[in-house]
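Transcriptional regulator KdgR
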Amino acid sequence: MSKNVKQGSADREPATATVRTGSGGIGRAIRLLDLVVSEGPLRFAELLELSAIPKGTLHRLLNELADERLIQFDERSHTWSAAYRILEMANRIWTRSDIRVLAQDQLMALKALSGETVQIAILADTHVVVIDHVESTRSVRHSITVGSRMPVYCTGTGKVLLAWCDDEQQRDIISRISFSRFTPNTITDKTALLKELSTVSQRGFAIDAEERFLGSHCIAAPVVDSTGRAIAGLSITAPAFRISEEELISWGPELIAAAAEISRRLAPRTGETNGASH
């Protein structure tokens, strides 16, 4: 979870200082990529000021990084941000990451409880990306793969990741969402989403009521870091014909407890956790 687990400035300064000593193209490109990933979205003028890279060189490096799908330009906001290839590369690391190892038995326990597909996902700008899952063995089931990418506004994990992030980040993400209606139940505007996030925050879990796929609904809870901000969303997804929304909600206490246990296990890496209070 290196993107979401914030390290102290003391931990970052040596690496930054090392990069800045290099005047070569690779050093500048790495420094620029790190800046976009850690501070983005950023406008060109902001990048020019923060990077201290000459204007012409900055233009060239931005275009080269965009050609490699490492960063992307948003035409609406005129800002640069990390692109999906960063997540593709990070996903290879997830196979050895702490959170997958520490969460595995909790995913298995929730699957045993529900008999349904259980997954854990992280925030990826205006989307979520699945980093691990345990699939139901039933003939009709929700099937998903590691690396699957879905919008934040119409998924249970997306909602908890939005509800448990800081206000500035939440506003920024929501301002850049391009809403689409996938089903009659999909939230398609900012006002409705903010109202839903308030409800999610108050009750401690989120429901995807057939908002992404008709016939499939889920319940999700946040895995949080030492500041109480979500670093992952843990969810159970089931076919609506087999599991009613009431039964889905009945799994809430066990789901919240499992997410809290994963948060507790991550505490030595992120600091003592405050739980999922918000």
